[in-house]
Design goal:
Elements (H helix, E strand, L loop, with lengths): L3 E9 L6 H10 L5 E2 L12 E2 L25 H4 L4 H17 L3 H4 L4 E6 L4 H14 L16 H9 L6 E4 L5 H14 L5 E8 L3 H4 L33 E9 H7 L5 E10 L12 H14 L8 E3 L6 H15 L7 E3 L2 H4 L6 H15 L31 E8 L3 E8 L3
Parallel strand pairs: 4-5, 4-6, 9-10, 9-11
Antiparallel strand pairs: 1-7, 1-8, 2-3, 6-7, 8-12, 11-12
Length: 420
């Protein structure tokens, strides 16, 4: 198989809006949770969220949004943006600069873009309300492309003049991990030389609160403990939004440009639970199969795994099933590999999660550390047999796995390797 590398990263997240800021937060276990003002009403039981910083996108007219320097979006482009597409535009600008790509590297037949997003519920709601209240012909002409699930790739492909492969993925919380896996395949099969992988979500009231009726969101009002994967008292996830972008390139392109990669992508695997529309298989069967397939595709043995960035969202059932899956796959080596969930810091980004956490893996591999799993007061006994560090470790991992799981029992595992 051709070798494929991550050469650029872009982050708009609750723990930082640059690779340097994100790395510092991961090292220091600095979380992005706050008592979220839109949840202050007495009839809203959820109180904590992990919003992105410095952006203000609550105004109905995008021209009234606050976009921090150094980002700039043309007025005519704003009209088709939802909040998540704005975050993605800024993260993509960041990733292009980080990878040191020239304009001709971005816009050509050999460069594509795969994205993941659930769309923008707040923007879609506004369009439907206008249509119902003011008439069919009184809606903004670009309201559809600004709101539906494909809004991120629609806008990025158009605004950045992407001419290679492009599509979107909608497997919920596994979506941007699917985007990464299939982008890897595009390059491995020789169809593209470079792929942008994007995950983005609004992370606002309309995105987060619908999960409360599923009993999936934490009702803990304390930002310091609301998101606590693997803790015995965890009671649900904390919602977040933003965007993350990875630049994947072939070995030939890395050599041609003289690029310095963050990490190598060795392979990936996917599998389904075949169990429940919303709940993970109690034994983690689908995730275990995805991990086994990823290791096989990457040519890596369980004994070689140094770190797993777990999907663990802080839900009672999900975290438990993942612990079982990891033990089943690693066997006697489960006690050696460090397992942690960075969602204790960021909250759960839904379809953003896979790309964002793949970026965290790339940072860890390049800069030599393993993020700790924060906010654990009492470890759940279901985690017995796993090594879950509660503080960041200044050690160099060589092989790192990133797990993602979504509705319908969709599971993805991606394998990364240190570049030496």
């Amino acid at each position: 198989m051709p070798r494929i590398f991550i050469t650029g990263l872009g982050f708009i997240t609750s723990i930082g809006n640059s690779a340097a800021a994100v790395e510092q937060s991961l090292r220091e276990l600095r979380h992005g949770m706050v008592s979220y003002p839109p949840f202050a009403a007495n009839n809203i039981p959820v109180k904590v969220a992990a919003p992105v910083r410095d952006f203000k996108t609550d105004a109905e007219d995008p021209e009234d949004w606050t976009i921090p320097a150094p980002y700039a979006v043309k007025r005519e482009q704003l009209r088709s943006l939802s909040p998540n597409a704005l975050y993605a535009c800024c993260a993509l600008q960041q990733a292009i600069a980080d990878a040191r790509l020239a304009p001709q590297d971005v816009s050509n037949d050999d460069t594509g873009l795969y994205a993941a997003s659930a769309g923008s519920p707040v923007t879609l709601g506004r369009q439907l309300n206008r249509m119902n209240q003011n008439g069919v012909m009184r809606c903004p002409p670009l309201g559809v492309v600004a709101s539906i699930a494909g809004t991120v790739q629609f806008n990025l492909v158009a605004h950045f003049k992407i001419r290679g492969a492009s599509t979107g993925f909608t497997s919920a919380c596994a979506a941007s991990a699917h985007a990464l896996g299939f982008a890897f395949d595009e390059i491995a099969l020789g169809r593209q030389k470079r792929m942008f992988v994007v995950g983005a979500e609004d992370g606002n009231t309309e995105t987060i609160l619908p999960f409360a009726s599923m009993r999936a969101v934490s009702l803990n009002p304390d930002p310091a403990t609301a998101s606590r994967p693997f803790d015995k008292r965890r009671d649900g996830f904390v919602g977040t939004g933003g965007a993350a972008v990875l630049v994947l390139e072939s070995e030939d392109e890395v050599a041609r440009r003289g690029a310095t990669p963050y990490a190598e992508v060795l392979g990936w695997g996917q599998a389904s639970d075949g169990h429940n529309v919303a709940i993970s298989h109690p034994e983690g069967l689908g995730l275990a199969n995805a991990m086994r397939r990823a290791l096989k595709a990457a040519g890596v043995s369980p004994a070689e795994v140094d770190h797993i960035n777990a999907h663990a969202t802080s839900t009672p059932i999900g975290d438990a099933s993942e612990c079982k899956a990891i033990r089943a796959v690693l066997g006697e080596h489960a006690a050696r590999a460090a397992v942690s969930s960075t969602k204790a810091l960021t909250g759960h980004g839904l379809s953003l999660a896979g790309a964002m956490e793949a970026g965290f893996c790339a940072l860890a591999l390049k800069h030599g550390f393993i993020p700790g799993s924060a906010h654990i007061g009492e470890l759940d006994p279901v985690c017995d047999g796993l090594r879950i560090p509660r503080a960041t470790e200044s050690v160099q991992p060589r092989i790192v796995l990133n797990n993602s799981s979504g509705f319908g029992g969709a599971n993805v595992c991606v394998v990364f390797k240190q570049v030496v």
